[in-house]
Design brief:
This protein is 26% helix and 26% strand. By secondary structure, it is of the alpha/beta class. The structure holds zinc ion (ZN) (2 copies).
């Protein structure tokens, strides 16, 4: 079939909305009609040419929600009419990775999902030439085909603009708290960068019972919403002594510092806010390849501090995602407060401009 999609032709250029070809359904595949897609920093990271080896032209977007239209003959978990959220990684449910609580990377669907940007899509083409997709879900296309293991059915009561955020921003932010850092009740948490991910870290920290949730951002306008979600203290990131202030405020540092900006300078500052005996730095923001390292001494580590990371907050993209959605339905998350702009597909470049300028929280394309 012929479908509309926002295509990245080359790095550094705006996306162009074009008609592309979508191939047939494989036995494990589902055809999804897109309803909403969130714009994520990882899309911008690729678009700005920061992913070496990435194949262009490409359909970006990896935070999608839509309706299942048709299922391949071996699809068992989903049916036509289901509302689904799609994710960049999948979960087969039975390999060693899926059965382990140490990783969320499925042995087949995890690596396959992450490598999608490195190779041509099985499904999308333009003028007879295959094009790549950032995720199997290709969220910036009006219809997409993906393996059932990359999609999760959600309650039909959840609005589309909110639903899509669970595929990346919520999974990553809340997941980093619950499954990467494993924050406990009473812990102190610092969050660097109060954008779409950072605000979800607040939601997760609140759920985990953190006693102190400290936010740092360059934009003081972000403080109000963050406090509404549960932030207890705010610091302006332009203050060069911010780590010192946080250590003083918490009597020696936080148990967990979350870096959500992708800046090494910020990562270093976040590291310095952690307790010297048991502090954890959780790295979430993607850094450009030429600015992705900072110094930590052996002595730092020997006292008991650690640095952690994980794809999608180490949350499993179907089972943990479904559990997080249950918590949203129960009223424990503020995901509906995170959508700042609704765009048409033709307005997608304005969405990325606002993201780059720090003017939006989460912009969502509505199909
Ligand atoms: Zn993302
Ligand atoms: Zn698996």
């Amino acid at each position: 079939m012929r479908v509309q999609a926002a295509v990245a032709e080359t790095p550094g250029r705006p996306l162009s909305v074009e008609t592309v070809d979508l191939g047939g359904l494989g036995p494990n595949d589902i055809l999804v009609e897109a309803k909403a897609a969130g714009l994520c920093h990882s899309d911008l990271h690729v678009l700005q040419g920061n992913a070496p080896g990435y194949i262009f032209p490409s359909i970006l977007g990896h935070e999608g929600a839509g309706v299942v239209i048709e299922c391949g003959e071996r699809v068992t978990r989903l049916k036509a009419g289901d509302h689904v959220v799609t994710c960049v990684i999948g979960e087969c449910g039975h390999c060693a990775g899926c059965r382990s609580d140490r990783t969320n990377l499925c042995e087949t669907r995890g690596v396959e999902g992450l490598a999608a940007g490195g190779r041509p899509s099985r499904h999308f083409s333009k003028d007879g030439q295959s094009i790549s997709t950032l995720a199997g879900g290709a969220a910036f296309a009006a219809y997409t085909i993906l393996d059932q293991d990359f999609a999760t059915a959600i309650p039909k009561s959840i609005a589309w603009d909110v639903a899509c955020l669970f595929g990346c921003a919520v999974l990553t932010g809340v997941g980093s708290v619950l499954y990467t850092a494993k924050v406990r009740a009473g812990d102190a948490v610092a969050i660097f960068g109060l954008g779409g991910i950072g605000l979800n870290v607040i939601d997760g920290a609140k759920m985990a019972g953190a006693s102190r949730i400290i936010g740092v951002d360059l934009n003081p306008a972000k403080e109000d919403l963050a406090r509404e979600l549960g932030l207890t203290d705010f610091f302006d990131g332009r203050d060069t002594d911010v780590a010192q202030h946080i250590r003083a405020l918490t009597g020696g540092g936080v148990q967990h510092a979350f870096e959500c900006t992708g800046s090494v300078t910020v990562a270093r500052s976040a590291w310095l806010t952690t307790r010297v005996d048991c502090g954890q730095l959780i790295l979430i923001g993607a850094a450009p390849p030429d600015r992705d390292r900072f110094e930590i001494t052996i002595g730092d580590i020997q006292l008991g501090r650690v640095v952690l990371g994980g794809v999608m907050g180490k949350a499993k993209p179907r089972t943990d995602l479904a559990a997080i959605i249950d918590r949203f339905v129960a009223g424990d998350l503020h995901t509906n407060r995170l959508v700042s702009h609704h765009l048409r597909l033709s307005e997608i470049n304005e969405g990325f401009r606002m993201m780059d300028a720090g003017e939006s929280i989460r912009s969502v394309v509505m199909f």
